[in-house]
Amino acid sequence: MTQLTDLTIAGARDALRAGDTTAAELTDAHLAAIEGAGALNAFVHHTPEIARAQATAADARIKAGDAPAMCGIPIGVKDLFCTKGVASQAGSRILEGFKPEYESTITSQLFDAGSIMLGKLNMDEFAMGSSNETSTYGNAVNPWKAGNSDAALTPGGSSGGSAAAVAARLCLGALGTDTGGSIRQPAAFTGITGIKPTYGRCSRWGVVAFASSLDQAGPMTRTVRDSAIMLAAMSGHDPKDSTSADLAVPDFEAMLTGDIKGQVIGIPREYRMDGMPEEIETLWQDGIAMLKDAGAEIRDISLPHTKYALPAYYVIAPAEASSNLARYDGVRFGHRAKLSQGDGITEMYEKTRAEGFGDEVQRRVMVGTYVLSAGFYDAYYNRARKVRALIKKDFEDVFADGIDAILTPATPSSAFELGAMKDADPIQMYLNDVFTVTVNLAGLPGVAVPTGQDKRGLPMGLQLIGKPWEEGALLNVAQCLEDRAGFVAQPSKWW
């Protein structure tokens, strides 16, 4: 049989039910892999005792014939998800020592389905970053190398630890969150699949908030089928989350026929940007050819307000972050600064937040506070909200005109070296989200699929954008793209 850590979720599910392996064996194989992968810094809180207990329970369920699709599947959990009794720091020093007394809805659903938590995964602090370099745990490292270079590469952000762990075969799947591309960009950088569902498809309860109107959790896996399986277990209405949609959850896996004959795929002209690397343009054209060869109609479309997406996003997201992060003050939980004699409550707030928040979080909180302040609220925040409505309408118009899905690049480049943008203008880092933020602003589902490699051998991915609540149809187009691309490359183990 295939090495246990090389199995997909679908393959492991079938092997468990056939009796070819057990959840305990599968768990031990992945725990051993994690032990040997410290150089990647993907797992930051290890939970082997919990994993082994969950594996024992999963084996009992499988033996009894009471086994949902995710039963016995070892996964990693992004540090943004609150897990009962386990450190949940959101990659930040300010939440040091915080162990929730409750479980996030999504992790509860997965554990109820028999999934096994191997540990918590590295991430950019409070999900603010595109390279996993803002984490209090240090950088997560991409398991891929560029050609003959030994330089450490970014796995993307903010779900960098999740992406690195799945690509390096440390877990079969991982939880990520996506506020402006934080599932899709790292998925593309590491050669895996990642889907951001429609806003409201998955509960946000128990997930540490960055920007509440943009955040959405999703699965990160090695195949489209695996994403469909995991997404079904994560989805569903949650009365504890007022933004959770009360809609039935389809059988996403059953919708993966790979047949897209007669479907219309839109190609937005605004995504053809000046200075786009030739390799990204070639990848995009290859993807168009694959879908056309599969029987789809290719149609040029216009999303005219795309050029305003990044500025609008970097007003709205920091504004919401400023509000959400106001609760971290050193009073109720997490880090509290040491005070000098005579210091009062104001000094405690100031010192605690200065010590607890990293540079990028401080930058975004300050920007967000500024755009929400009197005199600037209408000039910046309200104007950005109006632009957001126009971006959403652009998508509504093209879908109403018969478009079934939209194909774009996922990232403007392949993975770059860690530290490469350290001294650059922060806007250069923000440009990594140029192809992905529109999807969050419009609340749509988007999926990144690995479809090729650059001249240095690094993976590159394409993004598909779908209609709201039609993740099954979107994943079916992604399945077709995956089948045609035939991406099977893996990083060579060096860690």
TrEMBL record:
It is an enzyme of class 6 (ligase). GO terms for molecular function: ATP binding; glutaminyl-tRNA synthase (glutamine-hydrolyzing) activity; transferase activity. Gene3D superfamilies: Amidase signature (AS) domain (3.90.1300.10). Pfam families: Amidase (PF01425). Its EC number is 6.3.5.7. The active site is at K78 (charge relay system), S158 (charge relay system), S182 (acyl-ester intermediate). Keywords: ATP-binding, Ligase, Nucleotide-binding, Protein biosynthesis, Transferase. Allows the formation of correctly charged Gln-tRNA(Gln) through the transamidation of misacylated Glu-tRNA(Gln) in organisms which lack glutaminyl-tRNA synthetase. The reaction takes place in the presence of glutamine and ATP through an activated gamma-phospho-Glu-tRNA(Gln). This is Glutamyl-tRNA(Gln) amidotransferase subunit A.
